[in-house]
């Protein structure tokens, strides 16, 4: 849906900032493929329509109910040699105790931990709806958020993107994953993203990225240990 706000057209899925022809698409994102503000301003109606066509293409290709989740193997999460990291806002996950706090050079509000080499990274965040109208907030659901993530991955050179319906902790989630070559290390890698809404209506984003040979193990850290509440 495109809403008329003077000369500005709003849509709640775009996730990148770029120029296209004479118009400008504006949306706010932070590092690690996490959307901070999930809407875009279109300065021209014809550009809004073209962008909507692209969004609809992504929605059609997001075959959530037909694709299997990326396979992972059991991890040692919760056992000796592991540490629990996170906070009450984004959630908690168990990672090896050799992992360290990771800060993306682009900054942002992501909570991230990585291995020493920085080749395997787990990211957690929430979708910030501050600044959105009530109508825009109402339009934000798990599927539109997952479509935003999908679109953002495409625009960051991730290929072979697929989607699936999965569980993360006790929550039903949409999983979006694909392959890429890491910019810093030149390694063939996978990124797996989980998007879900908690019981308070807060939309969460979790991702795991790692080289192909270790991706399943890193994914398993999230699948076997992610929680929004710490055990007593």
Give a brief description.
This protein is an alpha+beta fold. 22% of the residues lie in helices and 39% in strands.
Mind explaining what this structure looks like?
- This protein has 232 residues and is of the alpha+beta class.
- The chain folds into 2 domains: 3-61, no CATH class; 82-225, 3-Layer(aba) Sandwich (Protein Transport Mog1p, Chain A).
- The chain has helices spanning 45-61, 134-139, 142-154, 212-225, and strands at residues 3-5, 8-11, 18-20, 23-30, 34-42, 82-87, 91-96, 100-101, 111-114, 121-126, 159-168, 171-181, 188-197, 203-211.
- Strands 8-9-10-14-13-12-11 form a 7-stranded antiparallel beta sheet, with helices on both faces.
- The longest helix is centred in the N-terminal third of the chain and has 17 residues, at 45-61.
- The chain is globular and about 45 Å long.
- The relative contact order is 0.19.
Helix-strand blueprint:
Blueprint: E1 3-5, E2 8-11, E3 18-20, E4 23-30, E5 34-42, H1 45-61, E6 82-87, E7 91-96, E8 100-101, E9 111-114, E10 121-126, H2 134-139, H3 142-154, E11 159-168, E12 171-181, E13 188-197, E14 203-211, H4 212-225
